[in-house]
Protein 1
Amino acid sequence: MEFFLVQLLNGLAYGLLLFMLSSGLTLIFSMMGVLNFAHASFYMLGAYFAYQCSKWLGFWPALVVAPLLVAGIGALVERFGLRTVHKFGHVAELLLTFGLAYVIEEIVHLVWGRAAVDYQIPEALNFTAFHILTSSYPAYRVFMMAISIAMLIGLYLGLTRTRVGLVIQASLTHPEMVEALGHNVPRVFMLVFAAGAALAGLAGVIGGNAFVTEPGMAAAVGSIVFVVVVFGGMGSLLGAFIASLLIGMVQTFSVGIDYSIGDLAGLFGAQIPEQFASITLARMAPMLPYLLMVMMLVMRPKGLMGTRET
Amino acid sequence: MLEVSDLHAYYGKSHVLHGVNLRVEPGEIVSLLGRNGVGRSTTIKAVMGHVHCTGSARFKSTELVGKRAYEIAHLGVGYVPEDRSIFPTLTVIQNMVLGLKGKEATGRWNMEGLFDLFPRLRERGDTPAGVLSGGEQQMLTLCRTLMGDPDLIMVDEPTEGLSPMMVENVANLLREIQKRGVAVLLVEQKLTIALAISRRVYVMGHGQIVFEGTPEQLKANADVRKEWLEV
Ligand SMILES: Nc1ncnc2c1ncn2[C@@H]1O[C@H](COP(=O)(O)OP(=O)(O)O)[C@@H](O)[C@H]1O
Ligand SMILES: [Mg+2]
């Protein structure tokens, strides 16, 4: 019970963090038809900028400065990269973001080295928030959830209560019509790209110290976020939300479960070779998200709530 | 007001328009007729900046070719596409609001006035537009574009798939639009309302204009109708 509650909270914290990443990716994909391979690189940049900023100015300024810097980079990438290659089609755009991911990784190598940097949870949040029976629950995890939920509410209000939010929602289904009605859709694209980058950067700021800040973090998180977006359905924010929480839970719970294939076979009275029988669910954890994605694609190519074919 | 000359348009490598010439004067209804696939939709998409094209399309003596769609819209060109492009998850009112170019309506049309013309849209104001009937969606897409107060509105097959009563509604709205001094370029396949409300008509075939005249001249010309219109 105790294990279950703690894991539930951890899964929720991780799932919300995944949504911070996948929401931006989904918005960008739905509007522009570009699957941004460099999205997780913005997450990594957010973490490294926050690390640097924390050293110079402290954590609280970093919480604001790092996402803004990443937003600026996102805006530049859209304005001078994507917009320029747009006329050569989606493949060119895809390749551009692909190359960008490697460029960012190499820049991180050059500036901060290949090893993990010492990006720590701020002292002010390094305490136990509450106890679940005998387990203590860290305040920083609570802080992460609070930031994620605030972002969720902000995103919802921004999209539903403002004029530019309406323009964005309409552009999810009919960008050409929105432009024909006189809205500067290229500028909206740039704004959404920058905002998506900022959200990824913010996720990096609060995730980089909870997990680890190292040059491989973009690739690790990137593939999971990709799974989330495909599983939830291209073009659906709600789908991305559900998929984020689900994948967050699956990943968190599976690493803590020692149930093995041998135990499962035992239930049916079957004997299987030791080599397979000893594989536990915990060891299969890294595979599960991809397995879920493959199963979803086979059963429903559009994904959970997708509005278009992938 | 709109002067299209020697317009060529392309989808990738396929050359779809082969030098289209047409014009629309202020406040007149002009129809662009022809069979399916001859390039009528492509013509107005090219004017709107949605298709790659060469040649010239001047509106109030400003060249449109090379401009972005939102700039063309701000010059006063309105566009109602064939597929209607309703924003399905947004409400009827939100769809209408997105037709505005500024914060509020300052021109010939406003939301209340348009709702007076189509009380049905007012009743369904807070409904997601995706659940409206085909006829209601057609009214909504016309009204949405009118909210932006265009001086020329290009309408692509608005009567397609509508009941005779809704077709009559569309015809009446187009007349009302003209009465308020807005020019209309109407794309149609059937002659039904086009001959009744237009001042001039063009017939298109294979990416070119093959006939130009008044509705009476087209009625009298059985050869043109037989070769380019009747199925
Ligand atoms: N998006 C597109 N890509 C390639 N070809 C197209 C596209 N849209 C239309 N076409 C082709 O261009 C020609 C003209 O189409 P269109 O302008 O839609 O005709 P109309 O509106 O008169 O029925 C047709 O042969 C059609 O197949
Ligand atoms: Mg057509």
Protein 2
Amino acid sequence: MSVNKKIVSDLVANQIGFVTTVPCKQLAGVIEEIDASDEIYHIPANKEDEGMGLCAGAFMGGKRPAIIMQNTAIGVTINTLVTLTQFYRMPLPMLISYRGELGEPVACQVEMAVHTKALLAQLNIPTYHFHREEDVEELDAILKHTFMCNKPVAILTDAAFWKGY
Amino acid sequence: MIRSEILKEIAPILRDKLVVCNIGLPSQELHLIDDQPSNFYMLGTMGLSSSIGLGLALSQPKTVISIDGDGSVLTNLGTLPTIANNVADNYILLIIDNGSYGSTGDQPTYAGLKTSLTRVAEACGCENVVECDASETASVLQQAIDSGKMTIIVSKCESGNIKVPVITMDPVVIRDRFMKAVQSS
Ligand SMILES: [Mg+2]
């Protein structure tokens, strides 16, 4: 099974039926799989904080949500994570492409990469880092953990995990 | 008419609907006028009332009304294309457009100057966009509910605020009783 198919099958197995996405090159394949899935309502967002609002509504409507975005979005969404997702205690798995790590061709991406883990730690967001392909085996447990504790949870997926671009 | 007068008039229509209410004075006023478990009060996160309401409408069958302001829609203008392209016929976005940032001291918004949110919503692809005078809000809202079509209402009113206490209810309590209202038959 391809890593993209494995990710989507874990989402579906955990009853995640509402996924919002803001694209990244590294995430193109998984977004395509989500769009093709009959079991997931895929709603592209124009900005990640908007996407988190959609996810909050879906959760209160009885659907399990998830967001797929780039790590630059951590800078965009801090206020939403704190005053909506965390304040109202809502679960939100965040599958994040971790740009700016080894193999990154765009220097500017490194500028946000160096802040990514520090910001997530400052926000007390449980954070997992997928570096090798087999790390994806933990996704199912991470999703269960997210809906057990009702918190936003970050899954950082770097270029090595995606085998480059 | 000012926002609180509109809220007073539409409160009987809102009562048995799922309502997502904008941060600041709109939530405080609705809470004072007619607190209901089926009201989701935003205590923070300016701009996301429309997004939360759309996500909710897409995920369950009951009618959802997002009460938003002109300033908040301008903050999250990307919401309008998302709404237009993800039609939920149980969703109504009510923009109370007083042309100002009411909760922060009535500073003018661009919606009170050259920008028409009605035309922005139409240009984004929203199909049922109704602009009305504040005094017509209740009847336009009732028609939108009865139509069973996703509708964006832009209610033009005067800016002005009444004195209201802040909401001291815990956010998790707001969310929990709201989710119970969503699930109740
Ligand atoms: Mg206003």
Protein 3
Amino acid sequence: MSVAYRTEPVYLLASILATTRRYLQDVSAYVIQLVRWPLGPLFMFATWRITYSASGRTSADGATLSGFLLVGIFGSILWSSSIWGSGYAIQNERDDGTSGSLFLTPVSRAAVVAGYGLGSFIWFLPSFAAVGVLGWITGAHFAVHAPWAVVLAVLALCIASLAAGFTFSGIFILTRRGNLVANVIQSPIYLLGGLMVPLSVLPGWLRPFSDAIPVTHAVVALRESTLLGAGMGSTVHDVALSLIASAAWFVIGLIGLWRVEDVAKRVGQLDLY
Amino acid sequence: METRGGAIIASHLRRVYRKGGRLFRKGGETVAVDDISFQVPQGTIFGLLGPNGAGKTTTIKMLSTLLIPTAGTATVGGHDVVREDRIVRRQLGVVLGGDRGLYAKLSARANLVYFGNLYGMTSESIRRRTGEMLELVNLQDRADDRVEGFSRGMKQRLHLAKALMHDPPILILDEPTIGLDPAAAVELRRAIGRLVPEHSVLLTTHDMHEADQLCSEIAIVDQGLIVAQGTPDELKARVGGNRRVVISTQAPLNGRLAGVEAGLNALVDVQRVITDLDDVGGSRLTVLCTETPRALDTALALLRATDAVITQVQVVEPTLEDVFLSVAGKSFE
Amino acid sequence: MWQSASVSSTSTSRLALQAAIASWKAKIYEHIVVNGLGGYVLVWVAFPVFTLASIGLIYRAHRPGLVGYAVVAIAASAFITNALYYVGQLLDEERHRGTLVNLFLSPAPRLSWLTGLAFAGLFETTVSAAVCLLFGVIAFGVRFDPDLPALVLSFVLFIASLWGLGFVFSAFGLILKRSNDLANLLSSFVFLLGGVYYPISLLPAWLRYPAEALPLGYGMQALTQASLHHAAIAQLAPQLIPLAGFALALPVIGVLTFGWIERKVRRRGDLDLY
Ligand SMILES: Nc1ncnc2c1ncn2[C@@H]1O[C@H](COP(=O)(O)OP(=O)(O)OP(=O)(O)O)[C@@H](O)[C@H]1O
Ligand SMILES: [Mg+2]
């Protein structure tokens, strides 16, 4: 009796889901992972909230401080889940010594990366819950006029984060210091992506950099639709900008992934196998 | 199908590693594989034999799509390993072995299920094959334990199960029995022996015995080149001088030996006859020959005719180790 | 025959020094040669600058006085990051590479190779902190008025207590594994209570008590006062005295914790598991 194979689309989907499942089995094996994700955002919120109080500001880009920060933290959790999930996928396989086995299989490398992304998103659900609780406790003022605009903005933010994850998954390996780079890019994104800092305080010459980051526009869309009662019209505009930037990042990411395997196979010295 | 010629065909493979080059310093080069060509015929086991650092693993990595050759080409199942890497991967089961390469936090079963998915198998196939494979490598009892707690031998067996999971027609095994206890090694060799003729197998090993027993053809690799190739018997025939019959008698035969010597020297198979005394004072007759049976038969007959009491008979066939020593001029380990 | 005398053995202190120097060299080599000087140092150095820019921009409009504090404190926080992500992860990293077992097998005192490894990170961190200070001067026009003896003393005590903390983390990383995730969690905690973005005196009362139980707030206060406001040692006594206590106690606690955890891990038998 020989082995039966799936058709190509089913194969792709099944390998994504199998990787997601494996990712979850893997992370749940560590105690630290169980506490880290719900606690992290709480500490982070408190730190920034106190910083803002110390700065003498009472609002940020028109929203209340708590509201502004909650949306920013929501975005940063998505970002982290993407960077440490899909972004770190290949690096993780290398660290665990399984990249050789993985690359021996015919599976689509993008499917594996996507599987990590999905798994990590699920793993981060407690963090999102923690943010929700914070919103409730701090009494952040929300003003939603167009619920669909919020949904759209959240989707754009997810896509933007995933795009970043894809882009970095290759870069992490090529730089050989994935962990460090993943940590290091966090602060520029908090600043340039307008996650924790109002875009209005940035000097003008930094704006083009901000605009090139897909997360920037998605966060603006989410803030305006949840905190300032923006309608569909302005949200669609920002979401569109975000999607354009995301598309560009995805392309860079796919090239990067291809490069990694190519370089590894040619040089044979990336310790990839 | 164009695969009739050979399941695996390597043609002038060469692989150079650059090492240590950084910033302003130009690194040197290591020629891991110099120029290697061979064919693994359909349904046979082909062995690559050679000392540490000979380039066996590098060859295997090139054949299994993990490494791009610096020069030369190779096909697996008729498909080019560089241009058609995805098709090659589907047809290929590889054991790279060692402690790594398995998901440590996952159970043996979960590992097999995951790899099944990565190879695109249907859930039904995955379920069935997982059970079959665990049984094949005798890990049913530990199927649901995490791999991190496995012994080296258990991991090695799981590696093999993983490689066979998607029932590939072609297998590449890098030192499959490394780290196994003798009983487990025998068991695994039997399992590998049963893989043919349905599968074609390329394996590397340091174990001469294993190569002799399993492989229908062997290539001896040294410093990135094939220094000898053929069936185990052909290879051993090259060092025919090592074939000898040694017979000891209870008491010294002295004058009676001349007739025996003359009789043996008359045979075409016999190259030389040496007589001396053994450690316990009897006579010892050593016959260097190309075929042992006739020499043995004749020697015994002639000796009996002299009424000698024979205490010990030894037939020494050449081993692959002799072959290796004679072609590479150095010993293993 | 094997002769035990054929390898001349050294005294324990010589061995400790030798192990520390060898580890230090190995680490430096790994970082600068293996990782490539250019990209690595650039990336490492850039790390706190963006954080500093964020915080500085937030303060600039209404509380320009806090910008100077943030510049010095964030520069100093590079050493905290070093203690957490670097010293704290050393052991786990070695385990990941499978070399931890060999370090443990060696007869050298644990503290010696740990210190050697930790020293290697100090160089990069110092560069990083210097870049931060320079950025503060250029971007925010911060002016320094340092009191050197006070600054040096504060710095030494600050580093000593950080390393103590790092060793404690390192030991816990050994038992929890995934020390990187531990470092991430701890760093969010330390940045909240360590007086990095704001002096701990600005914390709400209920957060100030736990903050005062950590050495970081005192260190930051001493460093900023000594570098920006020419505060002398005597003036800084309220900060330097508790800081000195931490600087003496934490390394000892670190070593004790380490020994305790090592035994625990050996009993549990997962020294080389990952
Ligand atoms: N990634 C690499 N970078 C640089 N040199 C390498 C690399 N991999 C292997 N080599 C070198 O290539 C040569 C052949 O190594 P290879 O692993 O193929 O030998 P092998 O025959 O498998 O040996 P063993 O029997 O010890 O497994 C060696 O000199 C080795 O140092
Ligand atoms: Mg090898």
Protein 4
Amino acid sequence: MVTLNSKIPEGPLEEKWTKYKANARRVNPANKKKLDIIVVGTGISGAPAASALGELGYNVKVFCYQDTPRRAHSVAAQGGINAAKNYKNDGDSVYQLFYDIIKGGDFRAREANVYRIAEVSNQIIDHFTAIGVPFAREYGGTLTTRSFGGVQVSRTFYSRGQTGQQVLLGAYSSLSRQVKEGTVTMYPRRDMLDLVVVDGKARGIIARNLVTGAIERHSAHAVVLATGGYGTIYYLSTLAVNSNASAAWKAYKKGALFANPSFVQIHPSSVPQMNEFQSKLTLMSESLRNDGRVWVPKNKGDKRPANEIPEEDRDYYLERRYPAFGNLVPRDVASRAAKERCDAGYGVGPTGLAVNLDFRDAIKKQGKKAIEAKYGNLFEMYKDITGIDSYEEPMRIYPAGHYTMGGLWVDYELMTTIPGLFAIGEANFSDHGANRLGASSLMQGAGDGYFILPYTITNFLAPEIRTPRIKTDLPEFDEAEKNAVENINRLMSVGGTETASSFHKRLGKIMWDHCGMSRNEQGLLEARRMIRELREEFWKELKVPGKTDEVNQELEKAIRMADFLELGELMVLDALNRKESCGAHFREESQTPDGEAQRIDEQYAYVAAWEYNGENEPVLNREPLNFEFVELKQRSYK
Amino acid sequence: MQNMKLKLKIWKQRDASSRGRFVTYDLDGVSPEMSFVEMLAYLNEKLVLKGDEPVTFEHDCHEGICGSCGMYINGYPHGPVKGLTTCLLSMRYFKDGETIVIEPWRAKSFPVIKDLMVDRSAFDKIQQAGGFISVAVGAAPEANTIPVRKHSSDLAFDASVCIGCGACVAACKNASAMLFVSAKVSQYALLPQGRPEAKERVRDMIAEMDKQGFGSCSNTGACEAQCPKQIKLFNIARLNREYIKAL
Ligand SMILES: Cc1cc2nc3c(=O)[nH]c(=O)nc-3n(C[C@H](O)[C@H](O)[C@H](O)COP(=O)(O)OP(=O)(O)OC[C@H]3O[C@@H](n4cnc5c(N)ncnc54)[C@H](O)[C@@H]3O)c2cc1C
Ligand code: SF4
Ligand code: FES
């Protein structure tokens, strides 16, 4: 067991962050140059962190597996980024944003962290605007917003349907500036294989050069993981296909706790699976639900084309079940409702695993042009993939694995349980509780990177100014490198007959069926058994071609797959442990009479932080969640 | 829809210093619903199981937004369909029995790393030379204190959607990077926030472009025709104007 100290500052909610900053230790500019920081990841958390730390004068080394930082998975975010600007005069405020995130997360996040992210949200928009991110504007020249799933105010800033691209490229431009300034060194095409811990502190990483295959040692005074989420464990998900859990998983095995691993958001609107070779489900931004109406036929097995089904034979089930929020209910609610309809036999499309998202009424009311201006690129993408023109007939959508609220446990300073190891963005667990609200991940990533980590990291670094550059010939580096090489050699020498992708598909199916949108004890126990068997089979039947000292994409996949096969079991264990339903975690044993999620606050108002324990069952550490400022309520969107 | 049988002629090259060659593969069972990269992944799955070497190629988002994917398909960067990246190119655009020729980008500034994978880091260098607005974290004014004409903002957005895939360079007989550079220069030139550094930016980015060995622009427009994000040629005209102003 470890003692979890969340380091939440004392005092009223609104003053915690200000007080923290006032009291934080500082590193003087002359000393910053002497401190090395490794940032792994260049998404919307890593690129901001690296550029902000570089601007402050630290010596920053940045890693990503892509050929350039600009391609990090964040680039694919579509809908927008939240901030509490209240430009629409609709009663928004920092408190309202905080409350929406806490409530949306079904009261399983830390109040202090959430309030802080809401507090910095406005600065993020200011900064991105100043560095040239073209957010959508009104004719008067000011910024505009739209409303986004799960809230009743309009606070989402956007750049058509490709906000992630725009903010990421903004962050990439600042990162590029720091590379020019010489404060940041880029190491692209590297896979982090292990974390190096020296005397209890994170001091470096082992990385594989994906072009030459060379195993490299990199040292620093502190390490920041901004390596994103692990939703690709489902194989089919909305994430970029190379997204993976390995960096966080290796940190876990070196002693960092993994929090709420089973909290995974299944997004309600992706393009349904079309063929068995598909490796990715394309997201259709939930902003579409602002204007699109979700429905299925009222009659089971109604195979008429959607446009031929008259109004009276349509079941707008979200509007029916949730009159107050209608099509804008949070993602977990919308996903489960779609699954419920499809499982009951009302699904549409060739597989019956889809529901309609219909723009007919919106086009009638606002005109095609207005709809095109808002969602043009999404309609295009949908057409590219399916061949269907959604101006003429409804889109078909189905839920898909999308975002992992779980991640490395961090304290208020965003530091893991390994001193000197920080985790930001989707890689940590901190702000979204059991369910994330739309457009708040870009906000959290950029907030962590630009405005929070640069302050909180100094408490760790201030006492380190006299620590000389960390040498890479320390025995801890030898050991970590040896383990990484052995792992690779083991994978290469299995000599079986099945590819890593094939194992990935099989694991994905187990996770989707038993640890996806809805879970129960029996299914989870079954899943645990199946994952263990699959893991054994993997180490007997895996086939990796080629050599280790060259580009070897099959080896890259195998390395990631070995970690997924371990993480999958931890997710299941976590889901088994939490016998309540909360947010995206729906335990069938715990529901209200009308089928909504039923929390059990007396028993489960805690963060489940798992500790690696070698071959033995991981140890559960509980961080109690004390709600001092909001009242716990059963979520209702009726 | 019926599955297809294809003949694939794919460029195989061990590394930058080796000589490459075409290898022909017969591939059966291709579903018209696959995307081009899924088709290649399907080929690789078969190759690995047979004990052959898979084809190295890059892909990540499968949504046409990360810019990882990219290859010549039957002589066209990203294939024959306008406005699509390789990952969004559906196999329904191909016919049963067809031969498809697949090659890596061919440009001096994009050396081949392996098979269809090339080194596009020259684009990063150009961006580092000046593709940014120098505002430090914490120094930004309140966002609405900088009003921007909606029209300019929309044009800036249209230029900003470049995914850095390199198809423009690959399409150009001179292997010029002008469309790519013009997109970035235009985005910032059109916004008031970008004006203070406009001169240095365009000078430095052009200088770096030359240094990276990209060719010059002879206005043939092949880049625009092949750009999956439909970045327009008039951005190059704007780049030229900005450049002249900066001299
Ligand atoms: C399709 C889609 C649409 C979305 N839309 C929105 C939206 O509209 N609004 C919103 O707020 N959120 C949205 N999200 C969520 C949001 O995009 C992500 O949560 C967020 O971008 C994650 O950012 P990140 O910085 O944590 O990680 P990522 O962007 O995932 O970056 C991870 C980085 O880590 C690197 N990395 C990973 N593993 C390793 C390793 N082992 N070695 C070296 N490097 C490694 C990668 O190279 C990459 O640079 C969306 C997500 C998806 C999938
Ligand atoms: S301008 Fe077009 S073709 Fe060139 S890199 Fe950008 S998106 Fe690709
Ligand atoms: S894989 Fe990202 S653009 Fe094609």
